[in-house]
């Protein structure tokens, strides 16, 4: 007898909930092997090809499937452009980890969580159970002893609170505001991204801090970039405060790059993973550390990153200095921003 798609979905992680049509309450399922998960930098539309098998099913039909119990996924949340994909690739080499990098469906739910659109069949109050349901689907594994580790995109951080409210393990990756500004200024694409996200980040900050922020049009380029750091750090700080039962570890990416052989086992330990010094040394010496994690066919080392950041720091020195003072002034009036800045200092 031929197995139905429901049978396959219940068996393991082969059928991946790739995208959702939230208006129609439908899901696009893609057929992925364990190796496809391991190689993928992004579990989103960039994976689509004529060879990728896909089918659309009703959300309610997926919800009706009885699934075996799987451990709650572990999470990597971050502020963006701080090596989360690199850390996910390194930990994804561990046999106990099934790494999921940037599931697009989580971003879709996160956007609905923030914007609360009127054209979806769920109210904001109903989105919490939807998040729980989706987490159960993403938790499916291939082998006994595996556990899913989800590396979310930074835009998914609004879901960190509902995903961790009942406990769980999470790594919060960050870097200092100054280093973040240098990082974004070093790349044209990242600068464009910061501008494109300004509106929704202002909305998120208004929801988090319950106060008005300067309009997008009044912000300089570097202030717009700083807005990203403020928003993502404030989101993670608010999550930690609201989720006392969660096991949350903060790690500074620049500190990781300065001493990867020491830091990698510590990060593995954050997730209750056994990683010997020999295994850590092999990973640090592997091509993973010297290639661009989002596109491994390109070389990108810590030393090259440092050169690019130093150049950005030199070119934009005055703007960076003025923006750091601007954020310090904001922190005097907005407690959550003050908490974010203090966290960045004390967690390094």
Structural overview:
This protein has a single domain, classed as Rossmann fold (3-Layer(aba) Sandwich). The chain has helices spanning 5-11, 34-39, 59-63, 84-92, 104-115, 127-138, 160-164, 177-185, 188-196, 198-209, 221-242, 253-258, 260-270, 277-284, 302-315, 317-333, 335-346, and strands at 15-21, 26-31, 54-58, 74-78, 97-101, 147-151, 168-174, 246-252, 291-292, 295-299. The protein is globular and about 65 Å long. It is α/β, with parallel strands linked by helices. It is built from 17 helices and ten strands. The N and C termini lie far apart (57 Å). The strands form three sheets. Strands 5-6-4-7-8 form a five-stranded parallel sheet, sandwiched between helices. Helix content is 51%, strand content 16%. Helix 8 packs across helix 15 (302-315), helix 11 (221-242) crosses helix 16 (317-333) and helix 13 (260-270) packs across helix 14 (277-284).
Instruction: Give the class from helix and strand content and strand pairing.
Output: alpha/beta
What is the count of distinct domains? 1
Strand percentage lies at 15-25%
Helices, by number, come to: 17
Helix-strand topology string: HEEHEHEHEHHEHEHHHHEHHHEEHHH
Low-pLDDT runs? none
Strands in their spatial order, largest beta sheet = 5-6-4-7-8
How far from one another are the termini? 57 Å
> From the coordinates shown, what is the CATH architecture?
3-Layer(aba) Sandwich
Please give the number of β-strands.
10
Radius of gyration: 20 Å
Tell me, what's the shape?
Answer: globular
Indicate the CATH class. Alpha Beta
Q: On the 0-100 scale, what is the average pLDDT?
A: 94
CATH topology: Rossmann fold
Main beta sheet: 5 strands, parallel
Instruction: Give helix % range.
Output: 40-55%
């Amino acid at each position: 007898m031929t197995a139905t798609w429901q049978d396959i979905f219940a068996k393991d992680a082969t059928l991946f909930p790739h995208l959702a049509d939230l208006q129609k309450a439908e899901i696009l399922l893609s057929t992925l092997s364990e190796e496809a998960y391991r190689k993928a930098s992004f579990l989103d539309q960039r994976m689509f090809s004529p060879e990728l098998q896909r089918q659309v099913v009703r959300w309610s039909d997926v919800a009706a499937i009885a699934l075996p119990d799987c451990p709650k996924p572990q999470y990597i949340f971050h502020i963006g452009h701080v090596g989360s994909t690199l850390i996910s690739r390194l930990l994804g080499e561990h046999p106990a980890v099934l790494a999921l990098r940037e599931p697009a469906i989580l971003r879709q739910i996160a956007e609905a969580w923030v914007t609360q659109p009127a054209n979806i069949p769920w109210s904001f109050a109903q989105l919490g159970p939807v998040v729980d349901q989706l987490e159960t689907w993403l938790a499916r594994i291939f082998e006994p002893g595996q556990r899913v580790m989800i590396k979310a995109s930074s835009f998914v951080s609004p879901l960190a609170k509902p995903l961790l409210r009942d406990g769980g393990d999470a790594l919060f990756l960050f870097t200092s505001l100054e280093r973040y500004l240098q990082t974004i200024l070093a790349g044209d694409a990242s600068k464009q991204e910061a501008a494109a996200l300004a509106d929704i980040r202002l909305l998120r900050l208004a929801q988090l801090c319950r106060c008005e922020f300067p309009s997008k049009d009044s912000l300089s380029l570097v202030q717009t970039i700083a807005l990203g750091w403020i928003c993502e750090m404030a989101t993670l700080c608010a999550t930690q405060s609201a989720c006392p039962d969660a096991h949350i570890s903060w790690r500074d990416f620049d500190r990781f790059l300065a001493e990867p052989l020491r830091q990698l086992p510590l990060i593995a330990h954050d997730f209750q993973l056994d990683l010997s010094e020999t295994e850590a040394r092999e990973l640090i010496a592997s091509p993973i550390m010297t290639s661009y994690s989002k596109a491994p066919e390109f070389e990108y080392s810590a030393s090259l990153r440092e050169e690019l950041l130093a150049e950005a720091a030199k070119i934009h020195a005055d703007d960076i200095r003025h923006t750091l003072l601007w954020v310090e002034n904001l922190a005097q009036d907005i407690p959550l921003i003050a908490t974010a800045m203090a966290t960045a200092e004390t967690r390094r």
